[in-house]
Amino acid sequence: MRVMKWSMIALAVAAGTSQFAMASSQDESKGFLEDQSLKLKTRMEYMNRDYKNGAGNVSNGDGTFKSGYRQDTGVSQLLTYESGFTQGTVGFGLDAMAMGSVKLDGGSGRRGNGLFAVDSDGNPEKSQGKIGGAVKFRVSDTVLKYGQQFVASPVFATDDSRLIPEVATGTLITSKEIKGLELSAGRFTALSKQTGMGRDSIGGLPDEDGNGGKGLTNINIFGASYSFTDNFTGALAASDADDYFKKYYVNLNYTLPINDEQSLNFDFNGYHTKGDSRGDLVDAIGDGTTGVDNNLWSLAAAYSIGAHKFTLAHQRSSGDNAYYYGVDGNSTIFVANSIQISDFVGRDERSWQARYDLNMKTYGVPGLSFMTRYVMGDHITTNGLGEGKENEWNAESKYVIQEGPAKDLSFRLRYAMYRSNGAYSGYSSDNNDTRLIVEYPLNIL
Question: Member of which family (predicted)?
Fold first, then answer.
């Protein structure tokens, strides 16, 4: 979601007055059943993390590990139903979701990739699932939704990087009354993590004694996005996570068309996090420092020419500690150098990225694409261990079937190699990460 500066809203209101005379989404409603949809997404995921230099996932209790491997394979299905809105001034509708996963491979000695919950004996669950629903109301082009839902705000975003996505419980209002302007506000009281089957929060920062902290009680979010032109958008968002922090976000995105085959894109993302109440008293990442106050920004420039895209990005983190997220959703990090393993958000960290993308459609193979990138970070402040450094290389290939009975079936192979120096090894151990993801989306209604 991209948002404009609040000072521009008045200008947008003046410029968009004529939009009120046009038919709204609610005016064009066909009905509860007439606009309904039912979709099923099947996903198979294999994930292996091969830890190096003596690290691992299951401890022997003496500083050594039973295994350096984490390996799981599973299949999940996500069924989502969305009704249309009833006709009239106020439209009413219902949304529902049901999801579940089954373990195909993986045991207690190789657990820890986040694909499955773990039972009391330390074994990955053989199956898991959850259901949810929400009611929704629409007036003109404004929608209010309450219940279980997926959220994609830069200050509160549910994660879908494993078999089952996170699900938030709360209220979200989205308004598109003015062309090009989208406003949103919400309050959420629970967040079910990807391996969580209930509606409890995802957990939070440790308390002052280093023990597991309480989960998030509630979070309020606000946002606005505005398209200044077809090529220039802006964004602002803010959140207040009870007892943890207040977070602010800004985005500016501009594309400069050069000709039909070439363009240049600039994308700026920035966060300011201010600790609130007990959030100022805790050690966010376990390095002996306290507080969660942080400033984080990134700037990426991408040059596209035909089938090729070349990207360079720079990112910086500063403040009392590293950038912290998770209690507000495991995808709440909209910056350039947040990649497969690391986010490059250490305390005082500076990082650079070089990336290359190739779309094979130009060469007669539509649906096939490749990507590779390298990010290096340094200048990380540690707890008396010297300068922390880290680097990561990613390679990825994806193919989507374009037609026929298996249309939209996709195959995605991802590989990452992560390394850090001794001063920063406590943050994330060296490892090689391999993932194979197969997805098949099906529109039933």
Answer: Belongs to the outer membrane porin (Opr) (TC 1.B.25) family.
* DSSP per residue, 77-144: EEEEEE----SSSEEEEEEEEEEEEEEEE--GGG--SSSS-B-TTSPBPSEEEEEEEEEEEEETTEEE
| Phi, psi (deg, nearest 5) at residue 399 | -135, 130
Helix (H) or strand (E) holding 9: helix 9-15
How many Å from the N-terminal Cα to the C-terminal Cα in the chain? 27
* pLDDT (0 to 100) of residue 107: 76
- The identity of residue 198, as a single letter, is G
Q: What pLDDT is recorded for position 198?
A: 58
Question: Do 110 and 69 touch, CB atoms closer than 8 A?
Answer: yes
The reported pLDDT for the residue numbered 6 is 39
Picking from 249, 251, 254, the residue whose alpha carbon sits closest to that of residue 266 is 254
Calculate the alpha carbon distances from 26 to 23, 173, 426 in Å.
Answer: 8, 15, 54
Burial of 112 (0-12, 13-18, 19+ CB in 10 A): buried
- Torsion over CA: 398, 403, 405, 407 (sign): positive
Distance CA 157, CA 194 (A): 13
pLDDT of the residue at 305: 97
CB 130 within 8 A of CB 116: no
* 332 closest CA partner among 166, 205, 154: 154
Do 376 and 391 touch, CB atoms closer than 8 A? Answer: yes
- Rounded (5°) CA angle 96-149-101: 70
Amino acid at 186: G
Looking at 1-10, 299-308, 381-390, which range is the least confident one? 1-10
Strands of 260-387, DSSP E: 262-275, 294-305, 308-319, 350-359, 368-380
**Mean pLDDT across 281-292:** 56
Owner of token pair 């082009």: 141
pLDDT digits (tens, 9 = 90+) for 297-307: 999 999 999 99
Q: In whole angstroms, give the CA distance from residue 44 to residue 436.
A: 8
CB 188 within 8 A of CB 218: yes
**CB-based contact 352:178 (threshold 8 Å):** no
